[in-house]
Amino acid sequence: MQTGLEEQLGLYQKRIPIFTRSVKGRFRRFKTTVLVLAYTIYFLLPWLPWSRLDAPSQAVLFDLPGRRFLIFGLTVYPQNVVWLALLLFIAAIFLFFVTGLVGRAFCGYFCFQTLWTDFFIWIEHKIQGKRPARVRLYRQPWNREKLLKVGGTHVLWLLASFWTGLTFVAYYAYAPQLVLDFVTGQAAAVAYFTVGILTLTTYAAAGLMREQICTYVCPYGRFQSVMYEPETLAVHYDAKRATRSMGAPARVPASVRWPSVTKRDWVIASTVDCAYRSVRPASISGTDSSTNASRAGSASTPATASWILSAIRGG
């Protein structure tokens, strides 16, 4: 259901749905742990109480009318933006350093697009079933089953997107009062506008445009290749090892088999898989394909091949 990058002739390719397989393993558990932790922090922080004398009792509050950010016991004023900018600069340098060492680790585990897409895929999996069932449902004509399952999936996507937008707005006002005003129609117009925009963009980015966001929209994927070194860890597909070890039907998704593209093109195009796959340290070598080929015959056990597939698919 996918075509290689070298076969894409137009500037923009029509979306080809990617149906991911369910995987298990320590790296999949780590990815799930990151997702749960990130969601817990994001969705619960506005509701965490914190006693204050001159502001609402909320642990994290971005008080725009008062021109201050209240973060637990810390108060950040506009004149403190210098050290905030320095902190962001250090974070960017750290990100570039990590990318040079282990490749797309940020895309695979920590990117917001990855986290929300992973959750949307989990919803899709729970309603529509495992990969074969989702593929069958996609190919079959519209009937009652398809309408209920696809419709239910999109309804839950919209609800998750709405709560994402409402939570974001809750950081800028006292959360309990904001939710009450919002549902009773008494909130400020900017609150409804912001929640509406974030609901639509989250729904589109994580549900409808998963691959396009990484391929065409994300700027990080565009300049990621300049941080790569010959020793940078990157997922590669070894045809000889997979064929000899796997034997038959299991296939590595065609989207990771790009033998004739440059390193820059490979990095840009492979970023589409950031929400589904993660970098793992073994069977993952530098970006020099000749080095990979020379090592192909040395480790061709079924366990190794399965491990390669697990790494490619984000497990």
Keywords:
single chain; 315 residues; mainly alpha; 3-stranded antiparallel β-sheet; 3% strand; globular; disordered C terminus
General description of the model:
With 315 residues, the chain is mainly α. It is 55% helix and 3% strand. The protein contains 14 helices and 3 strands. It has helices at 26-44, 81-102, 105-109, 112-128, 131-139, 144-170, 175-183, 189-208, 210-217, 220-223, 239-246, 263-270, 289-294, 302-312, and strands at 60-63, 68-71, 74-76. Strands 1-2-3 form a 3-stranded antiparallel β-sheet, with no helix packed on it. Helix 4 (112-128) packs antiparallel against helix 6 and helix 6 packs across helix 8 (189-208). The two termini are 21 Å apart. Mean pLDDT is 76; it is low at 244-315.
List the topology elements.
Elements: H1 26-44, E1 60-63, E2 68-71, E3 74-76, H2 81-102, H3 105-109, H4 112-128, H5 131-139, H6 144-170, H7 175-183, H8 189-208, H9 210-217, H10 220-223, H11 239-246, H12 263-270, H13 289-294, H14 302-312
Helix pairs in contact: 4-6, 4-8, 6-7, 6-8, 11-14
Structure described in brief:
This protein has 315 residues and is mainly α. The chain is 55% helix and 3% strand. The longest helix has 27 residues, at 144-170.
Structural classification: mainly alpha
User: Mean pLDDT, nearest integer?
Assistant: 76
Gross geometry: globular
Number of helices: 14
The description of the largest β-sheet is: 3 strands, antiparallel
How many beta-strand segments?
3
pLDDT under 50 segments (min length 5)? 244-315
Q: What's the helix-strand series?
A: HEEEHHHHHHHHHHHHH
Distance between the termini: 21 Å
Helix content: 40-55%
The largest sheet has its strands arranged as 1-2-3
Strand content: under 5%
Task: Please state the CA-atom Rg, rounded to the nearest Å.
Answer: 22 Å
